[in-house]
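Quick one: structure tokens for this chain, please?
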Amino acid sequence: MFRFARRNLRQSRIAFPTIPNNPASTSPGIITSKTSGDISSVFPSLSGSSPEPLPSRFATVKKCLIYGHEAQVRDSWKRLLDALQKRREEIKTKGSKIVPEINFWNLNDVEKRTEFRDALHQTGVAVIRGVVEGKEALGWKELVKRYIASNPGVKGFPPNNPAVYELYWSPSQILARAHPNVLRAQCFLMSHWHSALGSSDTEHFISTSHPLSYADRLRIRQPGDSSFALGPHVDGGSCERWEPSGYGLGGVYNCIFEGNWEEYTPWEMTCRIPVKSDLYNGPGGCSMYRMFQGWVAMSEIGGGHGHLKVCPMIKEATAYMLLRPFFAPSKTPDDPQYLDVANWTLEDPVSSSLQGAVPSNGQELNAKLHPHLALDDTMVHVPDVRPGDYVAWHCDSIHAVDSIHTGASESSVLYVPACPLTEANAEYLARQRETFAEGIPAPDFPSGEGESQYRGRLTPEYVMKNISLQAQRAMGLAAFDGRQHELFERERDTLQMANQILGFGKA
């Protein structure tokens, strides 16, 4: 039976190499701290706050984005609404079955992998079965419950009966991030991204074969809960998706803003490397490049029982979310022709509105602001999961949770996203490593004392003595091996770059 580490933080800290400054980096600047809070700080719909209108400068941003392409954008909108209707009918017909699944032990099966890949590229969401043994995942749930019980006053949302805990360094979370099968599943998922330059890419520092650990929260949602009613949303910034200093740095959505949404590929990885997705230093705004968000189930979870819901049409939904602010209806929502393409024209004059986008908050969507998405029909449950299953969704995917947990048992997950090795991600990892040593919230999350005084918190010293070398590297605690013969030249350069950022020099 695992026993909690009981050493004082300062007695158990290991010595880290000095992290060099890197002023020429394209990554966001070092953030010393964020305001305190919880997950409700990121979403107005959870906090109950009413967002202020966006500044007028966003009208200028919108004008510049489609300048010279107005006619093409208008025509592409018509094609998009047609495509959305077709996808909507497909989703209504298939329901949860549209979400691809694969068993962990079939990851090397070429036929199953191909079928999985094709469906993943269409939907943007997937389930990998049996990544962790069910008994082990259930053990993680009991372990985290003991950790919470040993440390009265653990923060979470809602405050009086938390469903989402402000925990980042509990034993269960560390063990899940370090699990070799989880790391392998992350590599497998990230292999479905590609570079426009192919394997000959010599321009970009990135490796999807070396996943990095991202410290995120956990959820234990009780039956009957209706407080954690997080509706459709997209993480990784909100206004940043339209801003030239955000996603515009990589031209991620240029095809969409030029009127060629069909040419947009959600799976091109290099255009996202320079992106700054947290321009406003919001509490919970993600500055790390996460190819997939994901979680490992610690319980059985079925539809309606506090489960995840997704909009499984990654290309079309993203294009609609981004183009919606440029169009306005002439008829009211109660008119039978409200959704007709003829009712929607380019804004004139252009407003500053970016429907559902608020600086320093997540991007939220709803039926009123995004009517053509038909979210009541297109948001479907992920297939039922068992302890040890891994659920992952593209970083642009629209997702939500059940508004009410109608099941009879807890809905419990550990959030474990899949992050590639890049320059900016290595710099974030260096900062996260320091918060790990201190036991305070990870850099992207609300600040505070965190778990620094908690009993049973695992430390970097524990990882160095008890966890695999691969996991140590993922957490920034050991140098990457750049001498592997199978590496591409640029991948080798990427490992050397990361080692220098992390203070290990070349390896």
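The CA atoms of residues 198 and 231 lie 37 Å apart.
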